[in-house]
């Protein structure tokens, strides 16, 4: 299996040594990774003061009984564009099955379905995404900035954003408190 096939449907965890504020404690759900590039949705942080109901109202959709879930910082690219990662029990006009683990949707039909109580059973919403050009992520993976992990689906839906990074490391058998942000000298 190629590394690209391995990363789709997995999580990328930012190592403390990364030093990039956009990705501090990042947990990125990888949705695509091939020869043309990679796309993932960040789920390690939420946007303060914005909930799912705010997003729905911006599109003139009545929230109904939908929960006012937090909106995640999906990444530094197209920060005004929304994405939902959701369970595979609902597929819409633009939904993409991500390695049989979850689906990715980004159109209004999923917002309307959730507000009407007819959407996917589980979902998280984010604004923006993390994107890499052809070969860029492969190059970054050759340095000590990212740790790819399989991680359980519960990481998406059952773990609060503030706890995802640490829980993902723990799930990989790593105590992130023991990681250092710099290199030593011999």
TrEMBL record:
Database matches in Pfam families: DUF179
InterPro entries per the UniProt record, alphabetical: AlgH-like
Domain of life: Bacteria
N-terminal signal peptide: none
HAMAP family, per the entry: UPF0301 (MF_00758)
Family statement drawn from the similarity comment of this UniProt entry: Belongs to the UPF0301 (AlgH) family.
Name listed for the protein in its UniProt record: UPF0301 protein GCM10022268_20240
Organism field: Sphingomonas cynarae
